[in-house]
């Protein structure tokens, strides 16, 4: 399904672009927060609670969502914008393969930026109290949530000329506002499922919408469906 | 068994909101080089995008080797595309661009194919340089090389000579002729008539999205040169004796006097050209200036458009 040359090309393009520097800075914001906490935290502070809240309330719904959205849109939208997508579409490769490859490359680039930030933040905040599960579950939450965001971003970049605007509105307005007080709305929030995974071995910041297994299934399903929709859009929309 | 045409348009229209880019166009294109001629905005790029499967028709059907390209990506094994205004990835070298495209077209030896294609377009010596540092003309040739690397049966080229110097144009035209002679189908767009004449023995002429003429390029050129023309003459006096003599001679169809000049309409420019000096002498008229009116390419296209709609003069 993954087309090797397109995967490598896209990953290279994503990591070479100037906006990646800004995304790296954004991804490092939690590290800065963690560093300040590590320096300023009072004796007896509940490190695990702080780390958990930071992951659930800052990292997954804002940092990871924005980084994945921008990179996911770049993977397809930039090529559509500058016309290089023509060179990929005018080949006998499967359309679903093209989209899956683009989303996979965007996801890889996103994880390259975010996973080190999760690990370093955990080490700074938890210090000696860090264990594997307090890193693995947050990494899993970030990884699966960003996979879904990348899928949505890829599909949006084929369906609209303003994918970033629509994506940011979804992240800020729907996930950041409506879904925080309307329980049913949070069922349509990617971040909520990501948080459900993060909270599996950490103190909950809010009641998770579902358990870890359904969260994994929902996030994987979102990625799969948006890839399928993207492949469908590729043969329908004006390139 | 009937040979399936490389390109088949059947009643194809493409519109964007209220704007009609291509209107009920039907044609087939077979082996050899075919020019797609038309002014800017005539619908050439949209037509090529439809051929390449980069957009879908609003009405009608587009078939490439008998199938709809958008729904049958396998057909691209036989198709090479040179899009307009789309430089390849600037961070790749020319060789990397062409090799990548060859690999995606499932060429057995993409490295050798890339080297051969870059040699063909005259870029072998800069194959290792990044495309981002290339001139416009060099990028055009990289685009052509990536379209040639998998030796396609059908080549779609949108304004491929843009940005090339005369020597480069000559080389690319030779490549196109060779491909046509090999039995491949090449369709190449341009808004410059003499450029198309040099490239293609067959031509399709688009005006405002309508197919207004198709056939041998020479015949279209003849049609254009024989169209009714308007010629403005600045003559001494009021020019009326000369105008009268030309009307009597039958060399002009209509005369209009306009602020010291006379505009003649004629269906036979050669006859007018022969008659003018002789009749000017006979009527003792001093001719200061002779110039064609509306002889630009837009007027030529407008004439073909009117003629196709049955409103030609």
Q: Features of this protein?
A:
A: 239 residues; mainly alpha; 9 helices; 0% strand; B: 313 residues; alpha/beta; Rossmann fold; 2 domains; six-stranded mixed sheet; 13 strands; 27% strand; elongated
Report the radius of gyration of chain B as a whole number of Å: 24 Å
Count of separate structural domains of chain A: 1
Radius of gyration of chain A: 18 Å
| Uncertain residue ranges of chain A | none
**End-to-end span of chain B in angstroms?**
43 Å
Uncertain segments of chain B are none
The total strand number of chain A stands at: 0
Write the CATH homologous superfamily of the largest domain in chain B. Answer: P-loop containing nucleotide triphosphate hydrolases
> Major sheet of chain A: size, sense and barrel closure?
none
Helicity range of the residues of chain B?
25-40%
What does this structure look like?
The complex is a heterodimer of chains A (239) and B (313). With 239 residues, chain A is mostly helical. In chain A, 78% of the residues lie in helices and 0% in strands. In chain A, helix 6 runs antiparallel to helix 8. Chain B has 313 residues and is α/β, with parallel strands linked by helices. Chain B has two domains: 207 residues, Rossmann fold (3-Layer(aba) Sandwich); 83 residues, 2-Layer Sandwich (Alpha-Beta Plaits), CATH 3.30.70. In chain B, the strands form three sheets. In chain B, strands 5-6-7-3-8-9 form a six-stranded mixed beta sheet, with helices on both faces. In chain B, helix 2 packs across helix 3, helix 2 packs parallel to helix 4 and helix 8 packs across helix 9. Chain B is elongated and about 75 Å long. The chains are: A mainly alpha (239), B alpha/beta (313). At the A-B interface, helix 1 and helix 4 of A face strand 5 and helix 2 of B.
